[in-house]
Structure formats: C-alpha cells, structure tokens
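@channel sequence for tomorrow's demo:
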Amino acid sequence: MKKFFAVAVSITLIILGAKAGAVGMPASELMRLDEVPKGEVARPMQQTLTSENSGLNPGYSVTPIQNTRPVAPDDALPNVTATAAIVIEASTGHVLYERNADQRMFPASTTKMMTLITALEGNKLDEIVTVGKGAYNAEGSTLWLDVGEKIPLGELLYGMMLISGNDGAIAIAEHCGGTVADFAARMTQRAQELGATGTNFTNANGLPDPNHYTTARDLSTLAKHGFTIPHFEEICSAKEVSFPWIHDNTKLLRNENQMLWLYRGANGIKTGYTDAAGRCLVTAAKQNGVQLIAVVLDSLYIWNDSIFLLDYGFGRVSSQSLIKSGEVVKTLPIIKGRRKSMQVKTAGEIIMPVFEGDANAYEIVYDLPAELTAPVKSGETIGKIRVVLPDGREAASVDVVTTVDVEQKSFFRLIWDKIKSFFA
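structure tokens (generated this afternoon):
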C-alpha cells in the first residue's frame, strides 16, 4: 500500500493537472495510476520543466522521472525511458538523436499513421464507408460503430487518429482495400517504397501479431512523408472534432495525444499501447519554421520522453529564411507584348533548418523560362525555386509568379515590328 501511494505521488508530479484544465487539456488524458510501470519506484529529478526552460506551453510543468532502465554511457538523453527512440528534422530527414532506432519493435496503434497515409493517398475524404461485421467485432479501443452505418471516410479517419478506434481502422481498410489483409499489404508496400524497409504490417490497427513490426527510424520516415500529404497534419493535429454519428450525447471526439496541449507547436501524431509493444508515441512539433518528429517505442513515460526529445532537437537546430515571400527573382523579357519586360517574384517563403555543427549546404535551383510570351496574366505561375540537399533530394520549393497583366501587341503592331526588324 505504501508503495502504491509513493508511486501515486510521483505520477502527480509528472503533470500538473490543476493547471491543465485552464488551457483545455481533457482531464481524462492525464496519466493514470495504472500506467505506472509495475515494480518501478519513481525517483524525482531536481529540475522541473516549465515553459521557461523547455518547450512546454504556459500553464504546464513536468517533474522529470529518473530513468530506471540501463542506457549506454554516452547516451545524450539518459532520462529517456524508451527502448527505441529517434528525433528528426522533417524537411531534410536529419537525425538529431537516436537510440536503437533500427531495432525491430511492435508499433501498436502508431500503425494507424500508415493507415491514414495509405487512405489519403488512394481515396477521397468524401467517399462513404459502409461499416461491416469485421469492424463491429473489433477488439480494443473503439468508436462503437454499428453494422451498416454509412460514414464519410474523412470523418472515420479523424475518429481513428483522435481516439484510436480499432473498428474505424478496420472499416477504413475494408473500404479502401477490400480486406484488411489486402490493405495491410498495400500499407507495407508503400512504407517500403518510402524507405521504411524494416517494416511489415499485417493489419490496419496495430493489434499484436508476430509479423507486424517496424522501427523507430521507419516510423519517423513515414511521419516525414505524411507531412507532405494534404489533410495529414490537419487530421493529426486536431484536438477535438464533432460528428453526428458519434454514439454519445456530446457528439465529440477528443484527441488522446496529450502533447497537443502540453507542447508548443505540437501538431501530431499518434499514441499506441499493447502489452507486447509497451507505450508508444509518434509526436511532432513545429517552431520557427522547423518541423521535428519524435518517436518513442516501449516507453515507461511517453510524455516525458517526448518532451525530452523535442527539447533536445529544438536545442540543436535553428532556422534561416532562404527565400522571402514576394521577393523579386528576376526581370524576364516579354515576346509579343505591349511591354518589353516584367519582374517575377516568389509566391511564398522557404525556411530551412540550420543544424548545430553542420555545414548546412543547400543548393538553390531556379527553374525559370528565359522569356515570357504575351499575353500574360498577373499571378500566373511561370516557374519554381527549389532547395536541393547535398544528396540530390529536394527539400523545399516555392512558385515564381508574374506581377502584372501584359496584353499581346495588335496584329498591325506585330507586322510593323517585323518590318522594322527587317530593315534594321
């Protein structure tokens, strides 16, 4: 009994629940007593993390817990409790920290991130999904779907990602892939095409299977790709959504990912837990134009670990503006126009990371025509500026657009110009 109360007090120190309610984090998402690792006595460390000394949002503080698992002597983050972990910068894939990043692990419900990616790449959000018996009989976390319900795919994707509905994942897989097995095969194929070669999926929800596995590095690779897909960030970063088909009076879904409330700039992605996998989290945050992705697998304290990882990452990367929005790029000649030339400008900005102790060599490539031909409309995209990494990968790009309308010369003016050119 004494040990139970000692653990309870320690967990209370992890997250200040009193202040959490002031900024909207759902009370049900605070770490529960039954999440305490069995047999571990939490040993508080000295420094409490706050918004002044970490990336925590104002109103939150966290008392770090001493890691009781062995780590390598040279590990930069010895207080991270996860068996496997990684933090990367998303636009470049630059690894800022890793631990056992290539070790084969069970992903639990972080699997649903790839379910989301596969559905977004192959289907439309307004497609209507008819819930089948497979979804109705799903094990574990649920959206309480009924057989025969007809729900837009996009709304089911929110349900799957926010409250980890296993039934939603099955309904999505059966709609998009025919069977769960066929959809899981598509997930695996696409994951490996994206570079996640240590990954194999046998289902769409992450329930235990000896042949359903991944690595921390692979999950960061998949998350990095996810941020390039329309609607991925929008879904993963939603704190709450409301839909008429939700089977309670509130009609509301609230995200299980506490980091969306706790951490500055947090914008995803997915929690996970099974007995076999332990506690897992793929999280992400964007600050000053820098997007980081952190993964912890088989963690004792997923929120603490993720805060440590993101703090460490943001402490080792800054941002620089390579291209400013509205910047004049070049003056291009105009053929057959009522004016001879026009300035063209950027339609957006490019912000790139600068890494501690790295040369940060980026090549800026201008893909622009040598000239324009009238008529030309203002705001028309006529080329791109691309930022290319040393290995040849494109990290970012921005459109280059025209700035004024230019009419074509009249027929008689064109003839007169030809005559003058001939005699000249």
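heads up for whoever presents: Residues 76-315 form a domain with the Beta-lactamase fold (CATH 3.40.710.10).
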